[in-house]
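step: validate -> pass
step: tokenize input -> pass
step: predict -> running
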Amino acid sequence: MIPPSFTYVRATSVDEALGLAVEHGEDAKFLAGGHSLLPLMKLRLAAPEVIIDLGGLRDLSYVTDQGSYVAIGALTRHHDVEHSEVLGREVPLLAHAAGQVGDPQIRHRGTIGGSVAHADAAADLPATLLALDATLVVRGESGTRLVPAAEFFKGIFETALEPGELLTEIQVPKPASPAAWSFQKFNKRAIDFAMVGVAVQGTSVALINMGSTPLRATAVESALASGASIADAAALAAEGTNAGSDIHASKAYREHLARVLVRRALEEASSRA
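step: predict -> pass
step: emit ->
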């Protein structure tokens, strides 16, 4: 389908992008890689009157070691996250998860910030950042604020971003045990969103597509903290979730997948520890 007509503006700086967002208000949308917004526009599920293209803001594309954490610019492509030497050494879970997004064409165009700001509960990276206790740096005309990943995702395609605000950076703390990680997902084809997925870092467990937002598997985490076996903890994976039913999988099947994938992920993480 062809999207409705819109005005296109290419921002040359973050300040210009923020100014344009304030000027046009709710009629404007930011465009990063385009893999989230453009399909919605083609389906007429989104109809912004103004598109603010962020593609030229190369100063928001970087991965740097900041001592206690790794800083990732919001416009860093999935491919660059996947192949970052810093992330491969310090936060291999995130580098690996980025390599599981879509296909090479998508990974060369899509951005980590675009995926996070879109807040699709079926996407790989939001849940991965949740498992890693990442902090999201948000800028608006009134200044900069830091939002923990646990507080960023509010609902279906809904985040803590206020009108006129822009996600500029993701800060990922260096795990104390960088080897104890795993990423598992189940899908029909490699390019498809996960029916269910799991990101594990140490004893932190996050679930993909088990509710309206990415979720921490708190029942699993509590069981592990109490000394439960991997099998017993994984059996609790569906507790506190709200998986949906659709043409791809029923609620019961997703709950089954969550238990299976959490067990596999915990076993793999344990073998790396």
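step: describe -> Residues 58-173 form a domain with the Uridine Diphospho-n-acetylenolpyruvylglucosamine Reductase; domain 3 fold (CATH 3.30.465.10).
step: cleanup -> pass
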